[in-house]
Amino acid sequence: MTHAIGERSALCDLLDRLGPDAPTLCTGWTTYDLAAHLVLRERRPDAMAGIGIKPLAGYTASVQSGLKARHPYPELVGLVRRPGGVYGLLPALDEAVNALELFVHHEDVRRAQPSWEPRELPADLEQLIWKRVATGARLMLRKAPVGVALHRLGGGVALGGPRGGARVEVTGQAAELLLFCFGRQRHARVELTGDPEAVTRLREAALGL
User: Fold this and answer.
1) Closest listed residue to residue 163, CA positions, set 194, 193, 142, 190
2) What pTM value is reported for the model?
3) C-alpha span between 156 and 78 (Å, rounded)
4) Residues 193-202: pLDDT tens digits?
């Protein structure tokens, strides 16, 4: 089983268990909204651009709302369970593109619920996550207001943010550093050290892709 398949299955099990109205870490989104987003991302390439390009966001939001209007929640979750579009035809592409996307959204649901705790991840998934953090830190932290040094527990350092001025050291497991870089700073189990004002600015910054 690939990591994409494992995260997809676990996320959908959790979505089924929580129902359509549970909160997520995605601002303003319930579990219903997140399920619609995942279906759109895989099955509506015409609307994908608006996920990252603001002038097109209105169309994307309209398509996402339309998916909710046309599909009951259990049906949407069922669509998420099966890789859609090109990902359904190419399992290797599903793994390469979706494994960490699904991991992050799985945590978006888990960590929005009470009494959550970090999962103990397989070593190969932790290594895959660290590879993404190490190679993508500059991109994910491009909006950071201060310099950032990511320290992986067990070894490894990645840098991002402005190259000059104040710098904040962020230490944690690879998965926690990924969530931090994806804009989930307040729900990532990491230790931040540095100038208190710089730490506060980094915690409140809009990070991510």
Assistant:
1) 142
2) 0.93
3) 38
4) 999 999 999 9
